[in-house]
Design brief:
Length: 240
């Protein structure tokens, strides 16, 4: 989102090659300017889920998660089946009620929807990166992606099986499909944004519990987030 951008230091500008990247699935290195179009094209293949993974020189955390996890993809997906909603969100709030106090405010007069993916662009320049990795995750079910990436488990970022369950919950409710996963950012494309204020407020509370920084370091209130979500075809999450 335009209001949530993390500042990075000097980047490795050396051009990456497939041989320099170790991932347990097929991937493509493409130009940032071509990434979204290629993502759309690859989504036609129902046997994979393409994911924009950002700058090929900044995959260290994702690769580290893959290398350190001893859990199989199947075990992570099976663990996700025990999670129920809204129970998970309620239990997370109860685990730290002071931290998860919902910051409320007035409904804004206007809101700018988020309709463009950003993981293929530079954080500061907002221009397409020279190179971007697109992973071909070997599942046609988009909510299984966190199990393949062993995604999460650092700081406030949910565990891999929790991501799986949440991704499925939002896929069922809103047609949300994960499109981008970098070392600290997740983006979704959304087919059915919430149609009413009530739905949008409920979703905003869920997203705050899932990723509190989108409010604490971003839009500040549940109402601000809800107003944006009503017309947005892209969701953005970031963890420090």
């Amino acid at each position: 989102m335009d209001f949530i951008r993390k500042l990075f230091g000097k980047r490795n500008t050396e051009e990456a090659t497939p041989a320099s990247i170790s991932l347990p699935f097929d991937f493509i290195i493409t130009k940032g300017v071509d990434a979204v179009g290629l993502l759309t094209e690859l989504r036609r293949n129902t046997e994979i889920t393409p994911i924009i993974m950002g700058n090929p020189n900044e995959l260290d955390l994702l690769i580290e998660n893959l290398e350190l996890s001893n859990d199989s993809v199947e075990a992570i997906i099976n663990a996700a089946e025990s999670i129920r909603f809204p129970d998970w969100f309620n239990e997370r709030v109860q685990s730290d009620q002071e931290y998860y106090q919902f910051p409320h405010g007035d409904w804004p007069d206007e809101a700018t929807p988020e309709n463009e993916l950003s993981a293929h662009c530079g954080v500061l320049t907002r221009k397409p990166l020279k190179q971007v990795v697109i992973g071909k995750i070997p599942t046609g079910v988009s909510w299984e992606v966190p199990a393949h990436l062993k995604l999460g488990g650092w700081n406030e970022c949910p565990l891999p099986h929790e991501h799986v369950a949440i991704f499925k919950h939002w896929a069922d409710e809103y047609g949300a499909k994960v499109a981008c996963v970098t070392s600290d950012v997740i983006e979704f494309t959304v087919e059915r944004p919430p149609a009413t204020k009530e739905q949008a407020l409920r979703l905003a509370e869920e997203q705050f519990v899932y990723c509190s920084d989108i409010l604490f370091q971003g839009v500040e209130t549940i109402e601000n987030l809800a107003s944006i979500l009503m017309n947005s075809k892209v969701w953005y999450f970031w963890w420090d």
